[in-house]
Amino acid sequence: MPAADLVIRGPRVALSESANLSSSSYPLPESIRPASIHIANGLIVAIGDYDEVPIGCAVEAASASEIIIPGLVDTHVHINEPGRTDWEGFASATRAAAAGGVTTLIDMPLNSIPPTTTVAGLEAKLAAAAGQCFVDVGFWGGVVPGNTHELAGLSAAGVVGFKCFLIHSGVDEFPNVTESELRLAMPELTRLGALLIVHAELPGPISKAGALACHTALIETGMVRQEDARAAVYQTFLDSRPRAAENEAVELMIKLAGEFGTRIHIVHHSSADALPLLREAKASGLKLTAETCPHYLYFAAEDIPDGATEFKCCPPIRERENREKLWDALESGIIDLVVSDHSPCTEKLKLKESGNFLEAWGGIASLQLRLPVMWTAAKARGFKLENLIEWLCRAPARQVGLQGRKGQIAVGCDADLVFWNPDEQFRVAPELLHHRNKLTPYRGELLQGTVEKTFLRGRKIYDGGEISRSPEGRLLLTGFHSHPVSTG
After folding, report:
1. Range of the domain at 158
2. Which end of the chain is more exposed for a tag (fewer CB within 10 A), N or C?
């Protein structure tokens, strides 16, 4: 065992109960106790009692009010660079991640130009990321019509898996796939052992609902068109994205998973009606997982003001009763993990002046806020810190094959650590956010739990509001060999 060059310790440390989880595929419970974490070359090499510190070793100690938890892993982040860097970029996104205790994120393959649907597209991503990342970053590839021949090359080049849309993605350079196109791609994905993550909404129910929701209404006096007024009503938007679109999409992916044996993951799930389908599919042994997002667990449709387009996302935030069923599914394991789906844009694209939900860009800025949002909502429902570590750290790490390296405090893991004060409250304000665009539905919300310090492989990258000047992040590619990002 190499000699430690740093010890990080605290009176409350969330440790995995196994001393070494590098060969384990399954999570073990957390034990919160006083401990010292011994670090050499960025790795955890030993865990001892609080007072076990080698003579002359550098020490960083958490206070009595802080808990040391693993760095968060966020596998659903739209960074948008290159091409739409005015929406977000590697530097701003990874700064926000560091401030939110996220030490590893995985970038989505769309909204950038070019998208990550070819090896050349991935190479453009890597070039754009060089020298800008403050946390570790991996990459999803994309499945679009006609690119099945690219999947093996992308897999070999280092993507963690592949994403597809079953409905228009919102950007023309990343078209959705049909069932027949999936039938061409899925045998290749199965051969590669690749994970397919799916935006699971089908266009049929949405087209039908949209025709009704957008039907022209007339004011009796003067016969004035009310389309704009109706489009600013949140219920109009909610009606335009019915649960049936998700339910039918989930049913389709379960059928295809059974036929082809492909590993399938349902992203940003919001419809409670599809939960029985997911439960039965998982019980039958299909390789199926699902995620949801903080906004589906925190907000409720009944509370969203008309014209407040910062709340628009697809699938939509649904009703209060739907929200509580998502919490039940998370508790029971039907839903496996919680990711941000950070999908920002410029304020102009949110159409705040008109408040038109039907035309505004759909996406929520939240990368920095996932931990306090989830803690605020989870604590109110009786959940514990151990639940959050599973949903926000360990399960996302497992999803992309990073178990034993990320998402837990155990020997052999990267020393990605967060000093977190679970009792401190703060009110969300734009000046606190490091996202490039500050518009978020969480503005003004009183949240509980503050990130005080963030460490990436033992290096302090965030401290009390200040972010390191030097980007220490690495690119996580094939086999998750780390490739240091040049800072030159």
Report:
1. 72-401+423-448
2. C
Taking each helix axis as running N to C, give the angle between helix 179-192 and helix 243-260, from 0 to 180 degrees, rounded to the nearest 10: 50
∠368-94-139 over CA atoms, to 5°?
110
Amino acid letter for position 156? A
Rounded Cα distance between 445 and 433, Å, is: 13
Tell me if 24 is assigned to some domain: no
What is the Cα 317 distance to its own chain's centre?
A: 16
What CATH number corresponds to the domain at position 117?
3.20.20.140
Alpha-carbon distance of 4 to 127, in angstroms, equals 34
Question: Is residue 409 assigned to a domain?
Answer: no
The dihedral built from the CA positions of residue 366, 371, 374 and 377, taken in this order, carries a sign that is negative
Any domain includes 487: no
Tens digits of residue pLDDT in 453-479:
999 999 999 999 999 999 999 999 975
239 assigned to some structural domain: yes
Number of other residues whose CB lies within 10 A of the CB of residue 12: 19
* The pTM of the whole model exceeds 0.85: yes
Q: What are 29-83's pLDDT values in tens digits?
A: 578 999 999 999 999 999 999 999 999 999 999 999 999 999 999 999 999 999 9
Q: Confirm if 143 and 163 have CB atoms less than 8 A apart.
A: yes
- Number of other CB atoms surrounding residue 481 within 10 Å: 10
Cα dihedral 386, 389, 395, 397 sign: negative
What's the total number of domains in the chain?
A: 1
